[in-house]
Amino acid sequence: MVRAIDVHVHPPTTEYLEGSGGSYFSNAFGIMDKAEPFSDLVSKFTDAGVERAVLLAWDAETMTRQPATSNEFIASVVEQHPDFFIGFGSIDPWKGREAIREVRRFKSRYGFTGVKLHPPAQSFSPADPRFFPLWDAIQSEGLVVLMHAGHTGFGAGLPGAGGVRLRHARPFPDIEEFATSFPRIPLICAHPGWPWHDDLLALAMHNANVYIDLSGWSPKYLPPSVVQHAKSLLQDKVLFGTDYPVISPERWISDLQAYGFKEDVVDKILYRNAARLLGVS
Ligand SMILES: [Zn+2]
């Protein structure tokens, strides 16, 4: 029996799937009909060996003109399943001083331990100095950052990609600038980072504070260099994540096990690396 911590779960609600993602998702994924109650999610994940899961808020209002999945809502779900969910809030960096005020309330008001950032969907570069006061607030609050890296299904297939620019999610120079300027922020780069997966591997090897979650892809389809590094040099830096409802935890975990990695390495990827990073005992 495995034990696992999923560091990347979206709320499977109609509000998130249709509201927050809306037309930006419709051409890319058949996930719009995947709404389900949180109690079903929790039992499905628990059956697959997942003990804890990071649940993500979403606010890209300035860019998308679509409603947020609010920090209040995510906090209320975590309150109903406090032994299972770990809440990560969202702030729209374009909200300026209000975003900074909100980040300063994350721990005290919501009990959040991290922030989700999505540079393409929120239309910013993490290297842009205009946002450094916000990154500074995140660092001084001691929050973990989960930052989207590489290609995204958000906007994929739309004319002009709906204005969603992939270049904001490049490991070099965009994410590196963030990681080196704010070295006390534990930074989880979300997804293998394709088509810059080798760049992302280099960034994670180079920076002690950079981690990679392998969410959104079945391990079966990961590029060979990612698989090679996950079982060797980066075995302490790579984390399990589903990007639920994109992939189910049982499929992700069984596809990982098919590689036949050493048991110790599997336990690090599925559980120990995240436990250390998130302070789960
Ligand atoms: Zn995601």
TrEMBL record:
What is one Pfam family matched by this protein? Amidohydro_2
The record's Gene3D superfamilies line, in alphabetical order, gives:
Metal-dependent hydrolases (3.20.20.140)
Q: Which domain of life is it from?
A: Bacteria
Molecular function, one GO term: carboxy-lyase activity
> What keywords is this UniProt entry annotated with?
Lyase
All copies of the Amidohydrolase-related domain together span: 5-279
Q: Provide the organism lineage as a comma list.
A: Bacteria, Bacillati, Actinomycetota, Actinomycetes, Micrococcales
User: What is the source species?
Assistant: Microbacterium immunditiarum
What the entry lists under SUPFAM superfamilies is as follows: Metallo-dependent hydrolases
Protein name, entry field: Amidohydrolase-related domain-containing protein
